[in-house]
Amino acid sequence: MITRIGSRTIGFENRPAILGYASVAGKKESEGLLSKFFDRIIYDEYNGKETFEEAESSLQAEALRLALKKSGHRAGELNAVFAGDLLNQCTGSSFGLKDYHIPFLGQYGACSTMAQSLLMAAVFVESGAANLAAGVTSSHFCAAQRQYRFPLEYGEVRTPTAQWTVTGSGCCVVGKGAGKVSIAAATPGRIVDLGVTDPNNMGAAMAPAVGIIEPSAVTSK
Fold this sequence. Notes:
By secondary structure, the chain is an alpha/beta fold. The protein has a single domain (2-211), classed as Peroxisomal Thiolase, Chain A, domain 1, CATH 3.40.47.40. Helix content is 29%, strand content 22%.
């Protein structure tokens, strides 16, 4: 059963479980402290494709494949996949997942897409609209540069506040039953304009969303 907690929090009585999860990352990400936690590292920024955008789509397809494998389920068992990326019209997701033939609902929340996808998957599973659902997201540094800043071929000098978009994809398979991690509640954010006007400094605009967290009324079982 889905319950309302306060003005914006959704509580899940049965706590949908994350039955499988996977992450695929690029070369730069492999050089960081989290590299040992990635399921697969792709060192070729094209991943054998002709464009950066196609490469991003392939990251999503691989993340979903690995998460399904770890969950013990097949793609045909998924009742819905909630997926998004940073490209126009969620093309990275739609082209990346089309061969799976899973009912698809595109999400576009920029850096909140994974949280939004998990929220939607949990709502579907808790309500009975789905027995099994997946949340997927991705981004690609080179594709993001081409869309939001300057194409790499332009050779511009990066500003001191310029952000480095992750090249990678993550996926979680959500369903009923026991799992190491379950989703107890979700709180959608609200729009706040903090007056950040530097178009290169996307991090300054997004970072406060991590720190401004309202107390939750959810208690552990």
